[in-house]
Amino acid sequence: MKFSLSAGNASGAKECPLLLESIGKREGAMLLMDKAYEDNRMRAFAEKLGFAPAMPPKRSYKKP
Questions:
Q1: DSSP code of 9?
Q2: Which of 53, 28, 56 is CA-nearest to residue 41?
Q3: Of the four, 2, 41, 45, 57, which is 20 to 30 A from 20 by CA?
């Protein structure tokens, strides 16, 4: 397990690619990602390294 802490007022998204690269290729390994990292670019990057991204389902908000 690896982790990195970003400054309290900085986005952690910059740390994600660095952490994934430091882990290396992991064919089929599940990668839990929260909504902060669910953009297509980050998902494609994780898949390129062999990870299987798992993200929470997108919510659809209905107006009352």
A1: T
A2: 53
A3: 57
